[in-house]
Design brief:
about 15% strand, elongated
């Protein structure tokens, strides 16, 4: 392995992958991400420990960013982030030149971007919504994603070779407006980890550890609501945003102070665009609460 992993990770990797042991549960409580299966966590940790890049694929609000943050914490690695958009350009990735003063003289300085900083520090680089970037932008960093681990800075002509510990975690939401399919050359540089919505006991654990809600009956009701929303998304009745775990946790928090139906209205329903979707979720909330 390329990293000196903390003992708790080594222990998890050495255990049977189907075992839900106490070490695993402690890891969940300590770091905030609740994996739906042991295998998801183990596979992501294994890939990173071997120096491979991982691509987290899943619906919005499923916890991809939280998983990336948790992995960064477990590896004791700082993480530089890139939020992709159609405006992403070389300067956003590599950095930019600016005027500065040294000893009362004006000089040109280069301010490093997240790719440059992560490579030189030997840190993690997180690329969020990687399929939002223009296809012509990302090939600039192809060399950072394969065995070369090098890139030529177009602004300084410096050839940067990543320090040991550098690795890339990217996240993707497929099928959203403004996204484009990843080309095969880019996709082949990643190990793909599918991050589904949390459900059942894992979701209950997340609600307990990440919200102010403590009432068991209410936690059960919100877990049921989430399952119903996910089922409706699968059937094409709702947009994926309606089943966002992030939005559900907000509703759980608000329900400690305001009525749950109003909490659901503010956190979930009012974010939806279509009246039929709003009415559908309102009916679910009315039935459960």
């Amino acid at each position: 392995m390329n990293y000196n992993l903390p003992e708790n990770i080594v222990e998890i990797l050495n255990k049977n992958q189907r075992t839900q042991d106490s070490t695993h549960n402690n890891l969940i409580r300590e770091d905030g991400y609740v994996p739906p299966t042991n295998e998801l966590f183990i596979d992501a940790i294994t890939a990173l420990s071997m120096g491979k890049n991982i691509l987290l694929k899943g619906p919005t609000g499923a916890g991809k960013t939280k998983l990336a943050e948790t992995l960064s914490h477990l590896f004791h690695q700082p993480m530089f982030s890139i939020n992709c958009s159609v405006d992403l350009d070389a300067e956003s990735l590599m950095g930019f030149k600016t005027l500065a003063y040294e000893d009362e003289k004006q000089v040109i300085k280069f301010v490093p971007g997240p790719v440059t900083s992560a490579m030189k520090d030997g840190s993690f680089l997180y690329i969020d919504e990687i399929n939002m970037a223009k296809p012509e932008t990302l090939p600039l960093i192809n060399g950072t994603l394969d065995y070369r681990r090098t890139v030529t800075n177009p602004f300084t002509n410096e050839v940067i070779t990543a320090k040991k510990g550098f690795n890339v975690i990217a996240a993707i939401n497929e099928g959203y407006i403004g996204t484009v399919p990843l080309n095969e050359a880019l996709k082949n540089r990643f190990i793909v980890i599918d991050v589904p919505y949390l459900q059942g006991d894992q979701l209950k654990e997340l609600i307990k550890s990440n919200t102010r809600l403590t009432d068991k009956t209410m936690i059960d009701l919100f877990t049921t609501l989430s399952a119903d929303l996910i089922h409706a998304v699968d059937q094409g009745k709702l947009a994926e945003d309606a089943a966002s775990i992030r939005a559900l946790l907000d509703a759980c928090d608000l329900s400690v102070v305001i009525p749950p139906k109003r909490a659901i209205l503010r956190s979930i329903i009012d974010k939806l665009e279509e009246d039929r979707e709003k009415e559908f979720v309102e009916n679910l909330a009315e039935t459960l609460f």
